[in-house]
Protein 1
Amino acid sequence: MKVLEKFKNNKVSGDLLLPFGIFILAFLLRIVFINKVPVSLNWDETSFAYNAYSILKTGKDEYGNFMPLQFKSVGDYKAPLFIYALVPFIKIFGLNLWSVRLLPSLTSSFSVVAFYFIVKVLTQRKVAFVSALMLCFSPWHLQFSRGGADVGFATIFTTAGIAFFLYGNKKPKLYYLSAVFFSLSIYSYFGERLFVPLIFLWLLFVNRKQLFERKKILLKIIFVILIFALPIFSSLVSQGHQEKILKTTVFGYQRPGEYVTQVQKLSTSVLTYDLFHSSLAEGTFGFIDRYLTHFSPRFLFFFGPSEDPRQYIFDMGMLYLFDLPFIFLGLTSLGKLKKKNRMFTVGWLLLAPLPAAITRDPVHARRAFNMVYPLLMLSSLGFWESAAIIKKQPVKLKKLLLVLAALVSTYLLAFYFISYYIYTPKKNYKGPAGWQWGYQEVVNKVTPLAAHYQKVVVDTTYQGPYIFFLFFQKYPPELYQPQARLIQADPQSLGEGAGYDNYEFRPIYWPEDRYKSGHLFVGPPERVRPKDIDPNEARVVEQVLFPNGEVAWLIVEVY
Amino acid sequence: MKNIITAAIFLFILSPAALFTLGQKDFSPGETITVSDRVARETINNNRGLLFEAGMPNFVARLFANKVTYRGRMILIRIGNTFEPHYLFFSGAIIAGCLYLSYLPLMLAGIYYLNNKLRLLTFICLIVSLLPAGFIAHEYNTFVRLPALFILCTLAGVGLARLIKIKPKVVLFLLMIFIYEYLRFLHDYLYLLPAKV
């Protein structure tokens, strides 16, 4: 407390040393063991990296499109800025895990500094310091800062945009920087295309009195945004973008025909069906359900997005349990803030889950990532509120409460690190929903053998094998581009690369594939069952084991 | 005060939780969680094993993987489940939530307009009323949560009593939403639930 009080009035340490120290701490937490946890690269990371490699070598994406504003990838049409930003990292570090994970670790560490300045202008330095400290150790923030997640890259643009806007109230020239960062955020992550315009409009509304007196500046800001955002407008109405919206959001969702027929039959009339169970009525309830679920105790404090192993941390929510009482206390102390700062904070919290609520998943920690900032600001406010309450207590009780608080917080923090570094990697390494462990080992074993076979068929059960082969082989993009072909079962699902050279990527169907002599088949034991391998026809050449000893992949040649 | 209690009773009686749960024949809360069962033992042993493999000393493994923290977490989860929006507003009474969505703004208003002491008292009453729910095996047993739901309806009653004086148009809007939700619940209860859609 005394140390914090010392910093309170010191401008130099508050505005320079403190943010620098916060950055170093945040970066250390985001870079340590980054080659071990998460356990392996997933197909998003390899796709980002390989497309960046392709841009570096040829100026084109994997499909041969010159400097695109959206990257088709596996049919998910990735936002471009993260991939372009990876190019210098791949140039310097090569095409490997470090080059794809270092950038989001850096940018998300800077976002912690931006958050410090945001909270400082909304409240005061001591609240900002604790907020930033909480963000450094935040499970939610760390989860998407480590691992090459585009949201870990995008967050710096959103937070910097907000920070520069708020400081622009004192120094109007900073509004232009805010406009630039907000515009860049739209190029960096799909979810920001909904959130950033809304938070920008909210900032304009909350600060309308100041901006009304500076109409010329407001018009110039809007002009800057239009100039920077103009190139992306064409891709927003492209078929690829529309496909993305249909695949991920509720706008592409069709209710099962059987369900609709049954409800129509049971409804008393067409009117009651239209009123209570039409697509619009149920869609609206569904949206509200998904929106509110992002504020649920299970998501925030106990399980997180447990349906998605890549997003969750075993036995933990997105926040620490001690954040719960702090957030409640923080809400009660919001009244102490200036009205417009209070309004902005509440608006920030209420707008943040929207990009997740319009998608089909019940909860989505990555798409609702912007929630972490206002929640931790409230938690920090609550921390200082609780400190004030404890300060008023008798000495013995004060000491007891402080010791209890320290023990509980330390225990919960320690549990997070144990769960993140020990439990979770053992539980989420497997399969398409997990971190897709095993591809590097498969590529290392298959590559020396490939030339000896007419065809190498790699099963697509674990999703995305083609991009892992391209990445780990560092296959020349100029050779892949003419061969690139995406196979999609339907426009609503993600696709698979068809293959290149003598590699073919498709589901293995062993009853037919067992007769294809001169072929090498690479698949999980569910697809290439050992008991179905007739020694007169085929043999297991190699296998890759999961860390728990189970067979992950079998490499089988057919004579 | 009289208005608040009247509103609370009215809101509670009309809620799906009260209508649905009190219409059931079986009021038994079901099994309680046990101190030691096979699942708990396996989970704790697995987690300890992972910590040993990672080179953690025995006391650390026991500190982070033990029955006390395992059960404590289960109890907190069950108490927290009461406040799951999906349970409260969409599925707690099978074809509807325990409460109507239109109660939510009233509850938030009720929390806002209470003073700090009453807020603390409400919070303590809520937690005490939910302690039994923390020990019931069925994670979403509505019957044991009825007292807590009544407290939430009381909060909504506080919000309603205040809002009706200062923002009558908002209350009118919420009333329209409430009527829609009530009719929807009745329709689904009478026609969809028997077919268990």
Protein 2
Amino acid sequence: MKELLVISGKGGTGKTTIVGAFAGLAKDSFPTETTVLADCDVDAADLHLILNPSVRETKEFFGLKRATLDPAKCNNCGACRAVCRFDAIAEHENHIKIEPISCEGCAVCFHICPNQAISMKDVTAGRWFVSDTVYGPLVHAKLGVAEENSGKLVMEVRREARRIAETLGSSLIICDGPPGIGCPVISSMSGVDLALIVTEPTVAGIHDMERLYTLAEGFDVELAVCINKYDLDYEISADIEEFCRKRNIDVAGRVPFDEEVVKALGRGEPIISLGHTGRVSESPAAKAIEQLWAEIFNRLFV
Amino acid sequence: MIVSVASGKGGTGKTTIAVNLALTLVETESVCLMDCDVEEPNAHLFLKPVLEGSAKVTVPVPIVNEEKCNGCGRCGEICAFNAILPLGKHVLTFPELCHGCGGCTLLCPVGAIREEPLEIGLVEWGHAGSISHIHGKLRIGSPLAPPVVKAVKCHKQNMPEGAISIIDAPPGTSCPVVASVSGSDFCLLVTEPTPFGLHDLTLAVDMVRELQVPFGVVINRAGLGNGGLVDYCNAENIHILAEIPFERRYAACYAKGGRLVEEFPEVKKVFQDLWHAICVTADRV
């Protein structure tokens, strides 16, 4: 079983568009088996918007416990406030108050309180779902607003996707990754077989790809690059190609700017989708993504 | 006044809005642009500031003196982040998981733990013309963005009284975004008229409402797709403060690191009007 991760560094370069198209293409490549899909962008998950899932299972996600204060036991000594390094404990008119949004759940206040006035409570920090789509099962999540621990939720999503893939005997899991290079990206990247970096020919796109490349290098992850909207700026596209050539990274695809991508999205379906009538897009971007998929498939399985 | 620029979805144009708003305002006000997208900071690519200084951002992580350690295992019990693992008198630490809460050091009964700073990022500052610029850079491989965000926000050095701070926030709605947006006087939520843009805007709206920061919406790439964005804003009584139409020449200008307000007079007008709309909405005229 192989795990393919699609990431970008910079947001909005087209990760979800590519993953959505891959979902349909994988169905062509594996006619007799099921590919598992995982949306690891738990902070702003969007893949479900184009795969039309029906939710089969919903699970609660508990992040770190949070401190809660029992005012009846509190004598407002301020010991908790003195040890909290996250400015989560304030004093209002001589009364101690915990700011839940700032609490990181370290529990130091709980341990230090001389009156046992603080307890650590489980907080639902989000939910994750197993859904059915025409492309195969989708594991996705919704992190609660303003919550921490997106990395831990990413790990739960990936664990469930792997469990399903093992049960079904799937050859492939396709993961839609989060933007950035921080904790959820690190959780998404560890142990994948191939990370496809989707970039765009803009100064921000190439800058962010370079930082992501350095991160991936530290993880010893196999890489490939796709230049999305490559015809937006040929000069910067050439710079990206040069960057990749110097580091021996395969530029596996070059997808042109194509308004059909936005139109398909507006219809709530992937640019290459499997409707009841079969494949429904023959646009320039769709064709380029088909070629990209062939490259990625070869890289993983041939 | 502090105005943060956030979005939910990545790539909707936060940096474009933050940079061009700063360039518009600097003609009449003193302006500081703080790039809090410390995982992937980009504002400097457009502002091209001359950097004048930098400071390391560190988290205090535990160092265990095994000669003093009595092997009680207390540190492992109390650490909520699995960053310290006692194996008898041999104690393993995982500094990259440590949040620097200081619990193990404080609660070790034999005082065998001290703290040492671990570098997780950098804050750099300088000027782009008259715009003061501060940005943070998360060290590549370090997972913890919020302390670097907080360090950027703490570093408003040499800021004149009454200056306007513009914060370029990271995408999403989780802890690094909250660290960026909290404490703002106003938040601009940048979106695009696609189902992804709308869906992630609803998440961002939930976040700013939870933080109780007044906000308004900027629609970028207006005309490219639809997706019920205006209907949603009307139903939720959210002000749409500006719309920037999709034009391939704007996209090409952005790609090169160009400044829209300097190349397109009609866009400059949009930003002047946007500032007026922010002031009206934030009740500050």
